[in-house]
Amino acid sequence: MKRLALGFAVALMFLTLVGAAQNEHTFTGEVMDSQCAKLGAHAEMMKDHKELNTAKECTLACVKNGDKFVLFNGATKVVYQLDDQNKPVQFAGANVTVTGTLDDSNKTIHVSDIISAPVPSAASDQPR
Questions:
Q1: Is residue 34 domain-resident?
Q2: 40, 73, 75, 90 - which has most CB atoms within 10 Å?
Q3: What's CA 33's distance to the chain center, in Å?
Q4: What are the φ and ψ backbone dihedral angles of 74, each rounded to 5 degrees?
Q5: Rounded alpha-carbon distances, angstroms, from residue 118 to 4, 22, 23, 115, 128
Q6: Total domains, the chain
Q7: Distance CA 126, CA 112 (A)
Q8: What pTM was estimated for this model as a whole?
Q9: 122 in a domain, yes or no?
Q10: Any residues with CB less than 8 A from the CB of 62 and at least 6 apart, and which?
């Protein structure tokens, strides 16, 4: 009986993991802070704070002051919240591809992975 229950539990876990992986999508954009993403760029913030010279410096400074890391797609102007606030640190201000599941009700990506990506030309943020 214990073997049957254990086998059932293992099968259920496997099916859950397979189901979750099937719902994962990729999203492209720039890792930004939430404030600059609302503005659509870092230009305004960097103009007001002359010590900030790069998108990375701007993003890290704003996050240090309480903003959150987000994914901003400049082509579509869509902002996605990122549930993991640790993985984006090394990609601050950079173009990336985020893999994860989207909670469409609050535009939050449950992040599985983040990798560097080339600068998009006219990229779409539609899940693939």
A1: yes
A2: 73
A3: 11
A4: -65, -30
A5: 49, 25, 24, 10, 17
A6: 1
A7: 17
A8: 0.75
A9: no
A10: 33, 34, 35, 36, 45
The residue written with tokens 């909670």 in the block is 103
Cα separation, 54 vs 57, whole angstroms: 5
Which domain does 86 fall in, by range?
24-116
HSE on the CB side for 27, CA within 13 Å? 31
- Give the strand pairing for 108-116 and 95-103: antiparallel
Using alpha carbons only, give the angle 30, 33, 39 rounded to the nearest 5 degrees. Answer: 85
The answer to whether residue 17 sits within a structural domain is: no
Reduce the secondary structure of 63-100 to three states and give it as a string. HHCCCCEEEEECCCCEEEEECCCCHHHHHCCCEEEEEE
- The rounded average pLDDT for each run of 10 residues, N- to C-terminus, in the chain (128 residues) is 57 54 87 96 90 95 96 95 97 97 96 88 52
**Is 1 inside a domain boundary?**
no
- Nearest-angstrom CA–CA distance, 25 and 127: 5
